[in-house]
């Protein structure tokens, strides 16, 4: 199955992903996309030199490759 899953996620002050929520998708790919995004780590976002939480939309694309 191929498709694109859109996920809203909160990136914490330490760069960890929290509060993930699917916002657009082919439903069969939800769990795989959420599991992948929960494992990711980001460089913390800085505001005036201090780390802050941010909410972002992540796009996870599943593509079948032909050999």
Observed structural traits:
15% helix; three-stranded antiparallel β-sheet; 67 residues; 1 helix; single chain; two-stranded antiparallel ribbon; mainly beta
Report on the structure:
The protein is mainly β and 67 residues long. Helices cover 15% and strands 48% of the residues. The chain is built from 1 helix and 5 strands, in the order ββαβββ. The chain has a 3-stranded antiparallel sheet with strand order 2-1-5, covered by helices on one side. The protein starts with a strand and ends in a 5-residue tail after the last strand.
Q: So what's the overall shape?
A: elongated
Give the terminus-to-terminus CA distance: 16 Å
Summed up, the helix count is 1
The percent of residues in helical segments reads: 10-25%
Low-confidence stretches: none
- What's the mean pLDDT score? 92
What profile does the largest beta sheet have? Answer: 3 strands, antiparallel
- Structural class of the secondary elements? mainly beta
Radius of gyration: 14 Å
Strand order of the largest sheet: 2-1-5
Q: How much beta, percentage-wise?
A: over 45%
Give the topology string: H per helix, E per strand.
Answer: EEHEEE
Number of strands: 5
């Amino acid at each position: 199955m191929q498709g694109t899953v859109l996920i809203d996620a909160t990136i914490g002050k330490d760069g960890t992903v929290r509060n993930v929520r699917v916002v657009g998708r082919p439903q069969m790919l939800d769990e795989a996309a959420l599991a992948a995004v929960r494992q990711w780590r980001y460089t913390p976002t800085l505001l005036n030199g201090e780390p802050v939480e941010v909410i972002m939309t992540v796009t996870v694309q599943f593509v079948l490759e032909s050999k």
